[in-house]
Amino acid sequence: MKAIQITTVGGPEVLKVTELPDPAPGSGEILIRVHGSGVNFVDVYYREGRYKAPLPFVLGGEGSGIIESVGQGVTGFSVGDAVAWFGPLGSYAELAVVKAEIVVKVPQGVSLETAAAIMMQGVTAHYLAYSTFPLKAGDTALVHAAAGGVGALLTQMAAALGVRVIATVSTEEKAKVAREAGASEVILYSHADFEIEAKRLTGGRGVDIVYDGVGKTTFEQSLRSIRTRGLLALYGAASGPVPPFDLARLSPLGSLFITRPNGFDHVKTREELTHRTDALFRWILEGKLTVRIDKSYPLDQATQAHVDLEGRKAIGKLILAM
């Protein structure tokens, strides 16, 4: 099979197509012919070596496809089933072996492209909206990068719950996407200070929750945008990791709360995983959740996909199509 195998960490140029032996499923595992693999910032972190994995390894932690074979002890799945998953590395490949316990069936009416695009970012948006800070009507949320993969999904979920979403984006084109997703107000951070605007839009009070997947360049202003006893959910670091921070500073800022959630801690059981994915697929089928795929790349253009992702050029999701 063809795969993107990492033999040394570094920039996008380390992504090379490699011929590898076809894998076979072991006990409790499923062999899947990959249809599509989501391209995510976590892939960048592994590629750079920020997240560690033994070398060499096949990149990619999210995908969809068709079951080729099932290993011993696997029940509930059959050859030919359309499925999706996220978690283990190995989806930047034509074939992937995945533990059955983290594989979910893709319902009829949901395309494999959509399934590849929704798993990681959709589950992230779901736990942010329903677990990290259970949103309710009347709340005000500041969502950074609201036209991006997680941001646009989170904005749709929040708006559906009756939440006032203040979105930050970099361009007018992305502002349009954020408004279509349900944002009440949109701040172009390239033209205005989002901290000042967030305070102005809330009458000086500040927002209840900031969802920040950007990290280094937004962290300080995000803190200052929050109301007393509000929460900063720092779920990513697209601009780089946040420098060391003295938690004592949270007191004078208004007794703030801060969390750094991890998606895998929100799908610890199969029941929790399927609770989230069933909701995502149901909303897609009902037309209540729109998954925007910005661009699909062949496997041998994985380097360009990473360049585009890191360059913040995408409006929506990037996927590799096998």
In CATH, the topology of the largest domain is named: Quinone Oxidoreductase, Chain A, domain 1
Rg computed from alpha carbons, rounded to a whole number of angstroms: 20 Å
**Portion in strands:** 25-35%
- The best one-word shape is globular
What's the CATH architecture name of the largest domain? Alpha-Beta Complex
Q: Structural class per helix/strand content? A: alpha/beta
Mean pLDDT: 96
The residue ranges in which pLDDT falls below 50 over 5 or more consecutive positions are none
* Termini gap: 11 Å
Total strands: 16
CATH class of the largest domain: Alpha Beta
Quick one: CATH superfamily of the largest domain?
Medium-chain alcohol dehydrogenases, catalytic domain
Number of helices: 8
Question: What is the N-to-C order of secondary-structure elements (H for helix, E for strand)?
Answer: EEEHEEEEEHEHEHEHEHEEHEHE
Report helical residue fraction: 25-40%
Total domain modules: 2
Main sheet makeup: 7 strands, mixed
Notes on the structure:
- The protein is of the alpha/beta class and 322 residues long.
- It folds into two domains: 2-120 and 292-321, Quinone Oxidoreductase, Chain A, domain 1; 137-260, NAD(P)-binding Rossmann-like Domain (Rossmann fold, 3-Layer(aba) Sandwich).
- The chain contains eight helices and 16 strands.
- It has helices at 41-48, 112-132, 149-160, 172-181, 194-201, 219-224, 270-285, 302-310; strands spanning 2-6, 17-19, 29-39, 57-58, 62-70, 82-86, 95-99, 103-105, 140-143, 164-169, 185-188, 207-212, 226-234, 257-259, 293-298, 317-321.
- Strands 3, 5, 6, 7, 8, 15 and 16 form a seven-stranded mixed beta sheet that branches. The protein has a six-stranded parallel beta sheet with strand order 11-10-9-12-13-14, sandwiched between helices.
- Helix 8 links the parallel strand 15 and strand 16 (317-321).
- Helix 2 (112-132) crosses helix 3 and helix 2 (112-132) crosses helix 7 (270-285).
- The longest helix is centred in the middle third of the chain and has 21 residues, at 112-132.
- The chain is globular, with a radius of gyration of 20 Å.
